[in-house]
Design brief:
Length: about 350
């Protein structure tokens, strides 16, 4: 394989498709920028991932992959390739592993194309990197960084990072201050306790909502804190159950914020209790103290990459199964985790705040 062109001046990075995965690529994005400090770097990303990088100083431009509109279907993919061809990129680095990512950049005639040779796409890459089996035993942060090393690039430190727009941060401050003012409180007086009861990859990743509701009631009563519930519109039913157990000291943000606003609000939390989800990785990148509840997924490969995190799990023989639904029907990996365990983990972080 020829060396990757070190004089590349117009680089396209293909982002991953999920928020959590995108957060775990942030060290790799930083590495690319440091290897090509003078280059213009564009990120090709789906709309719901774009806010992760909207304030990132390592990215000069975000090119939206409009999969539901202009770039929908086969004709849309061809249109995307034509759109990219007009930009005259001289190098693309594919953080996303799919065959489609390599095909589109091949059709876009980008002369140097680097990435893992997974999904049978080796022939579409000019700089293919073989995935070593041992990578499965490491956190996913290393997965992307080692791919860059395979391309002959220097990796930066592995720490996650997330940059916030100051205007959005001011909006988050105002939102929380307003909720506290309704309770006659000030932001400096009480803890902000974030809860994230949802997860995109099926119900097997979700600690039961009834347990979240009980936890919210306990933490609200013991700390006097404001409970802030995060999630999408799909989590509003769960949020309603949590609200009913908490009383007035609650702010339900499910389906009511942009991703950028949610990120800024998570940055203001004193502790964040969450399932394995994209927002869990957001909290890790923001160094927000967090408690992550794990069951069906691998806490080694995709756990919170942070020194400010506690993972709570109940080891059972079939976990992690990596399934969207419990294949055995008993859901013991999650049902076995008690409210008391999670509560104590959250209180430990809140006590360190004092």
């Amino acid at each position: 394989m020829p060396p990757i062109p070190k004089n590349a001046s117009n680089i396209l990075i293909r982002s991953t498709n999920w928020i959590g995965d995108a957060i775990m690529t942030t060290p790799a994005v930083r590495s690319i920028h440091r290897n090509f400090p003078e280059a213009k770097i564009t990120l090709l990303a789906l709309p719901w991932v774009a806010d992760v990088f909207s304030a990132c100083p390592h990215i000069d431009h975000i090119f939206i992959y409009d999969k539901q509109g202009r770039h929908q279907g086969l004709r849309g993919k061809l249109r995307l390739a034509a759109d990219l061809r007009q930009e005259n990129y001289d190098l693309t680095i594919l953080l996303q592993n799919a065959f489609e990512a390599a095909l589109i950049t091949f059709l876009a005639r980008i002369p140097a194309r680097g990435g893992y040779t997974t999904d049978g796409r080796g022939l579409l890459l000019t700089h293919g990197v073989r995935k070593h089996p041992a990578i499965k035993t490491k956190h996913q942060v290393h997965y992307y960084q080692e791919m860059l090393e395979g391309l002959g690039l220097q990796r930066s430190e592995n720490s996650l990072e997330l940059f916030l727009d100051p205007a959005v941060e001011r909006d988050a401050d105002a939102l929380i201050k307003e909720a506290l003012a309704l309770q006659g409180e000030k932001a400096d007086d009480i803890p902000i306790i974030g809860l994230n009861p949802g997860a995109a990859y099926g119900p097997a990743k979700c600690w039961p909502v009834a347990k979240y509701a009980e936890l919210a009631g306990h933490l609200s009563n013991k700390t006097g804190g404001l409970i802030v519930i995060f999630g999408t519109a799909a989590d509003q039913e769960a949020a309603a159950e949590i609200c009913s157990a908490t009383g007035e000291r609650v702010l339900d943000l499910t389906g009511k914020t942009t991703l950028a606003q949610a990120l800024a609000c998570i940055a203001r939390c004193s502790v964040f209790v969450t399932n394995d989800s994209g927002l869990m990785h957001v909290a890790a990148a923001l160094n927000t103290p967090l408690v992550a509840v794990f069951g069906s997924t691998d806490h080694i490969a995709t756990g919170p990459y942070s020194q400010q995190a506690t993972v709570v799990r109940r080891p059972v023989e079939c976990s992690p199964c990596m399934k969207t639904h419990c294949p055995k029907g008993h859901f013991q990996c999650m049902e076995g985790i008690t409210v008391e365990e999670v509560e104590q983990a959250a209180l430990l972080w809140l006590n360190k705040r004092e």
